[in-house]
Design goal:
By secondary structure, this protein is α+β, with helices and mostly antiparallel strands. It has three helices and six strands. Strand 3, helix 2 and strand 4 form a beta-alpha-beta unit.
Length: 139
């Protein structure tokens, strides 16, 4: 985490806290911002007490608007564990298409996770929202 915070000093990252009624509800952050490639990764976390209220969908859309507008990015990637259906649902609700599944690409506390990779592109932002949300398929 500390290394991610330092990236904000050199322009390679940006963090926001998400507050609801003066309570910390979650965080959202841009990681690995590449000026050369005009791309970035977005990560987010939401406290369980705030899940299901549309907070993260609104926050992600706002963050992506910032990335395409203020940072002039072309590509923003969101990676979610296939095991975390609620996290995968966030980009899907915004109409962001899943580009790939990255098998065994993340290790957390000795657990290995397959990650779904969703990508938003400036050229077609914002996309049309799907109806109904895209189904999640596991490998």
């Amino acid at each position: 985490m500390a290394s991610d915070l330092r990236r904000g000093d050199d322009g390679q990252g940006h963090w926001w806290l998400i507050e609801v009624d003066n309570k910390l509800a979650g965080t959202i952050a841009f990681h690995h911002i590449s000026e050369r490639d005009r791309s970035a990764f977005v990560g987010y976390w939401l406290d369980e007490a705030f899940v299901g209220c549309g907070i993260m969908s609104t926050s992600l859309k706002t963050a992506i608007d910032w990335g395409f507008g203020d940072r002039d990015l072309l590509r923003i990637e969101i990676q979610c564990s296939l095991h975390n259906r609620q996290s995968c649902a966030v980009p899907e609700r915004l109409g962001i298409k899943r580009e790939s599944i990255r098998r065994q690409s993340q290790v957390r506390e000795s657990s290995i996770y397959d990650m779904a990779s969703y990508v938003a592109f400036a050229v077609d932002w914002p996309p049309e929202e799907p109806n109904p949300p895209l189904p999640l398929r596991t490998i």
